[in-house]
Specification:
The chain has 187 residues and is α/β, with parallel strands linked by helices. 40% of the residues lie in helices and 29% in strands. It has six helices and nine strands; from the N terminus they run E-H-E-H-E-E-E-H-E-H-H-E-H-E-E. It has helices at residues 13-27, 47-58, 86-89, 101-109, 117-131, 151-170, and strands at residues 2-7, 32-37, 64-71, 74-79, 82-84, 94-99, 134-140, 173-178, 181-186. It has a nine-stranded mixed beta sheet with strand order 5-4-3-2-6-7-1-8-9, with helices on both faces. Helix 2 (47-58) links the parallel strand 2 (32-37) and strand 3. Helix 4 (101-109) packs across helix 5 and helix 4 (101-109) packs across helix 6. The chain is globular and about 45 Å long. The mean pLDDT is 89.
Length: 187
Amino acid sequence: MKILVLGGASCGKSAFAEKLSENLFVENSSKNLVYLATLDPRSGGDTKERIARHQKQRNGAGFLTVEMFVCDGELCFFKDAKKTDFEKSFPPDSTVLLEDVGNLAANVLFSKNGKNAFEKIDSFLEKLFEKCKNVVFVSNEIFLEKLSDDKEITAYFRLLSRINQKLSSVCERVFFVVAGIPVLLKS
């Protein structure tokens, strides 16, 4: 089962996606519940506070955390602060919660080698679909806003739009969370 959860900033999409992941894990007798974190703690700003808030929110839920960042233009995976590879990051029959697609897009696009960002992300997604039993994606709905005149921001919007369109086409369910209320868009 593949599920996409869309929503604006601080709308409750993460909490909803975590509950969905936990339910899929139990209902489908998955062997592992993996939280794939894409927010790079080196990003600055309020990043560390946001990471701490998300860790507290999922505390005790049984998630194995895998962090995914961009290293030298390629996706890198870390478990327990140690670099690992894709295969070791996701045991067979895993239920994975990818939090979030917007950070993944920004990490790849604005890395040293940000060319072909969509193709790199698409290739990763295909591997994830093949390997994992269930995947829940959290992504930002930023397209209700006016597009910026800034070329980098416009490139980011376009990339995230392509990824969200791809995910919405391949996911069996798509939700849009508004003010903490999930609305089913596709089933």
